[in-house]
Each structure stands twice: as structure tokens, then as C-alpha cells.
Write a structure and sequence with these properties.
alpha+beta; 5-stranded antiparallel beta sheet; 4-stranded mixed beta sheet; 24 helices; 9 strands; about 10% strand
Length: about 500
């Protein structure tokens, strides 16, 4: 949905949190840009300008507000009009800072020319890809200054600045203050351990946090993941370093409270971005509900569960392994197998909240006897083939610019079909339009008999078909109805039980 000046004006005057991050306000009299929810006194309409992104406001010569802190906004919505290319480019920027490769390298990954990529960014975001990346880097550094007690040298490194001198100069130019002066303005309410970092990751309400945990809970790998009292815990490993995260809901701030326990601060940007993806924090539930609610099949479901997200994953390879282990077994059975896999082949750790193992690496699984966890030889061969493809760098779950090309390569692994590929695209790649039309649970919920019919019906839900799948999975029908209406498939009830909540 394109935002007109009238819509932006009403959202600004009402400080509507649903529009937080969807546009920014540049105030001509102060040369400061703000979020729509900024608590400062309302400016006259003739003294404000509206920008589609923080980078666009910065490019226009405005500096970030110190009251509403634009770096704390929920981020640019993943939808961005109709440009899948821009959405994928933003995903690449989130996975790694692109300054080293430049705009040419980013455009090459996307399979388009750098000029065309720049035109798309200017159209949808009002700023070039490099300006967007630089603004995100600056905003992340500002969050580290305000929300952690890291030394400035470590902040500069974690945020991707080439040197402390460049870091200091950028802050003086942007905020008219040094990083040290900005830290004095921050209010640190609690002391943090040397390897502990606290963040508030904002989202656009509504947010069905309970539904998200209900989905993750039955699928949490024992020893690797844990859900307790509304908190999500899991072990993490990057570059040989081990740690863990704790995520919970802060409904008053429309944020997910994140605690990161990790020794090396230079990985903080990547960790935060992965968590944002895990909980789908850049989603725009208002836009998604408006679109899906037009269909009578989905209308009541959307109304009953506002703010439903598509659960992401910490690691794409891990999710793919889980999906393969889940073939032809129930959700509980898949969780049991995944727990066995983690205990047998994952590195042991001693961490709180029941966290005892890291998930096995591709290198470990590629050369292990996987049948000893109780899976058929064909499935063990599939897992080893997948792991070997990742080890050989024939397949990678990060930096995916062309989803169709990735899924084609993914399906070349023996034992991986369309359903697994679409499921991985939904949860590992964050593709909002991925849709496993062959899923028996979706067919049942939609009361359709074959995947082709459901695939045709789902075209009306594009580009939000992944969210449509979540709404259908959240409302499973009685299995006896399925057996009565589909007697020829009554032998697939076990499969249906697995897939109906997929």
C-alpha cells in the first residue's frame, strides 16, 4: 500500500505505532528526522517532509532524532511495494554489510545492473543501496552506544566501520556530537556482564507472540532450543565462538527483548539480524491482513489471529535437516529425531535453561553414520548429501539472491521434493510468497482435493502466500472430517497429522 501525504500526516498526528518504520518525518526547522511515534511537540504541516526510509531522510540532509531514536524503528517493511528485487537486496544487506563489494557486487548477486538496482532503491526507498547500508550501520552503532557498555573501539568494529577515526567522524557529522557525548545521554538501567548484550527489537503491532511460541515449542530441538515462561532460548555458534540467546516479549514497548550471551562483539550485527528474521519483526501485519482478509477463506482466520508471523530459523541448514527428518513422521517424532541427532553429533556445551548442545555442523553430518539415530537409510543418505553440498559450497543458505535458482539446486539433492523446498523457502529464506501447495494440512484446511487447485487459488494471496499458509495451519479441522471427505487418502492420516501444523 503506497503511503500518501494525507496518510502520513494522519499517522504523524496520531502517533500511530502501526506506521513506525514505514516512513520518516524530516522537520525543516530543526533539520532532524523522526519516527511517526516521536513524542516531541507536533510540527506544522508546512514544516515537515515525508521520506520512505531513514536513509532517504539522511540523504536529504536531516540528522536522526535523539528522542524517538530512528535506529530503534522496526525496520523497513519487507514488502516494499511490489519489488521482490529490493526485498532480496535488503535481505542481503542484513546478512552482511556490502561496502567491501560495493553496489556492483550487490547488483551482480541479484543478476541485474547496478544502475537498475539504484533506480529501484530510489523508487522504493528514496536512497541508494550503499546509503541504506551505511544508515543501517550507523543506526546499529547508535544502538550499541545506547544499549550496551561496549568500548567505542568494539562498537566501531561490530558496526562495520573501517576504523575508530572514521567511526568518530561519522558520528560528529551526523549527530553533531561525539560517540562519548551520546553515551552520556543514554540511560543504562541495568548493569550487563562483559559478554552479555541487551537489545529491544521493535515491531509493528499487532504481534501474535503466543502463536509464534506455540509454533516453535513443539519443534524446539531438545538441548539446542528451549521455551520457558514466554522466553525462547537457544545455543548459537559463529566463527568457532559459542553462546546463547534469550528472547521474550516486551508488549509495552512493542518490542522483543533480546539478551545475547556471546564473547565476540563483532558478530552482534549478524546475530541481531538473524533474530529479527527468526521472529519476522519487519513484517507489516496491517498490510498483510488487508490483503489476505479480502478472501472469504481467510477473512475469519485473519480476524481471529491478528499479527500472525511466519516463524523463521536461526540457520537454514539446520531447518533443512529438521524438515528432512520430519518427512513421514509427526511433529513430535521429528523433534525426537532432531534431539537424537543433536546429542549424537552436536558439540556439548554447559549453558543454563536446559541448553546442552550445539546443532551439528555440515562437516560433521557429511561423514557420520546417521542411521544410528533411528532413521531409514534413504533419509540418512539424503542428509549426508545435503551436508556434503553445503561443505562443497554447492549450496548455501545465506546470501541467497535468486530464490528460484536456489530451490532448483536444493531439489537436486536426492530425497528433497517440492514440499520441503517451499517449506525451507518460507522459514529459512524468509520468502513471503513461498507456498507448499502439496501440503495435506493446507489442502484439508482449504477443503480442496489436489495441489493444483490450491496453487491456483493461492495466486490471489500473492505476495503473502506464506502468511496465508500460516493462517490455514493455525486452524486445523477435525481429522474425522478429512477421513470422511477423502476416503481414498485415509491411509495418509499420519502424514496429515504431521503437516496440518507443519
Amino acid at each position: 500500500m503506497l503511503l500518501s501525504t494525507a496518510i502520513c500526516s494522519r499517522a504523524r498526528k496520531t502517533r500511530d505505532p502501526r506506521f513506525d518504520g514505514r516512513f520518516f518525518i524530516g522537520v525543516l526547522t530543526t533539520r532532524i528526522y523522526c519516527r511517526p511515534i516521536c513524542p516531541v511537540r507536533e510540527s506544522k504541516e508546512e514544516n515537515v517532509r515525508y521520506y520512505p526510509s531513514a536513509a532517504a531522510a539522511a540523504e536529504a540532509g536531516f540528522r536522526p532524532c535523539l528522542r524517538c531514536r530512528p535506529e530503534c524503528s522496526p525496520g523497513t517493511p519487507a514488502w516494499l511495494g511490489t519489488s521482490a528485487t529490493v526485498s532480496r537486496a535488503l535481505r542481503l544487506i542484513g546478512e552482511s554489510m556490502p561496502e567491501d563489494e560495493g553496489m556492483d557486487g550487490l547488483a551482480e548477486k541479484l543478476g541485474i545492473g547496478s544502475r537498475h538496482l539504484r533506480r529501484l532503491f530510489l523508487k522504493h526507498l528514496g536512497a541508494s543501496p550503499i546509503a541504506v547500508a551505511q544508515t543501517r550501520r550507523l543506526h546499529f552503532a547508535k544502538k550499541l552506544i545506547d544499549e550496551t557498555q561496549l568500548a567505542m573501539r568494539d562498537i566501531a568494529l561490530a558496526a562495520g566501520f573501517g576504523s575508530v577515526r572514521r567511526f568518530n567522524a561519522t558520528f560528529r557529522d551526523t549527530y553533531k556530537r561525539t560517540p562519548t557525548q551520546l553515551r552520556r545521554l543514554a540511560r543504562h538501567t541495568t548493569a550487563q556482564a562483559a559478554d552479555e548484550y541487551h537489545f529491544q527489537l521493535r515491531f509493528r503491532p499487532p504481534f501474535a507472540w503466543g502463536a509464534l511460541l506455540d509454533f516453535h515449542g513443539p519443534r524446539a530441538t531438545p538441548g539446542v532450543e528451549s521455551i520457558q515462561d514466554g522466553h525462547y532460548f537457544r545455543t548459537i555458534s559463529l566463527d568457532g565462538q559459542t553462546g546463547w540467546i534469550d528472547a521474550s516479549l516486551n508488549s509495552e514497548a512493542n518490542a522483543v527483548s533480546l539478551k545475547i550471551h556471546f564473547l565476540e562483539p563483532r558478530w552482534l550485527f549478524l546475530i541481531v539480524e538473524r533474530v529479527r528474521k527468526m521472529f519476522d519483526l519487519t513484517a507489516d501485519p496491517q498490510e498483510i491482513a488487508r490483503h489476505l482478509g479480502r478472501d472469504p477463506l481467510l477473512c475469519d482466520r485473519v480476524t481471529a489471529r491478528p499479527g500472525l508471523r511466519v516463524p523463521g530459523s536461526w540457520d537454514g541448514f539446520e531447518l533443512a535437516v529438521r524438515a528432512i527428518l520430519g518427512q513421514q513422521v509427526t511433529v513430535k517424532g521429528a523433534t525426537t529425531l532432531t534431539g537424537r541427532l543433536a546429542r549424537a553429533f552436536g558439540a556439548g556445551v554447559e549453558l543454563p535453561n536446559g541448553l546442552t548442545h550445539l546443532f551439528p555442523t555440515p562437516e560433521k553430518l557429511a561423514h557420520s553414520d546417521l542411521q544410528r539415530i533411528g532413521i531409514p537409510r534413504s533419509r540418512a543418505n539424503c542428509l549426508r548429501a545435503l551436508a556434503q553440498s553445503v561443505v562443497d559450497k554447492k549450496l548455501t543458505f545465506s546470501g541467497v539472491a535468486n530464490t528460484d535458482e536456489f530451490l532448483e539446486q536444493f531439489c537436486e539433492v536426492p530425497g528433497i521434493g517440492s514440499w520441503t523446498a517451499q517449506y525451507v523457502a518460507m522459514r529459512a529464506l524468509g520468502e513471503p510468497d513461498a507456498f507448499p501447495a502439496s501440503d495435506l494440512g493446507l489442502l484439508h484446511a482449504a477443503r480442496m482435493r489436489n495441489p493444483r487447485e490450491l496453487e491456483t487459488r493461492s495466486q490471489a494471496w500473492s505476495p503473502w502466500r506464506a502468511y496465508a499458509a500460516m493462517y490455514l495451519w493455525q486452524h486445523p479441522e477435525n481429522i474425522s472430517d478429512w477421513k470422511e471427505n477423502h476416503p481414498q487418502q485415509s491411509g495418509s492420516i499420519k502424514t496429515f497429522e504431521r503437516l496440518r501444523t507443519a
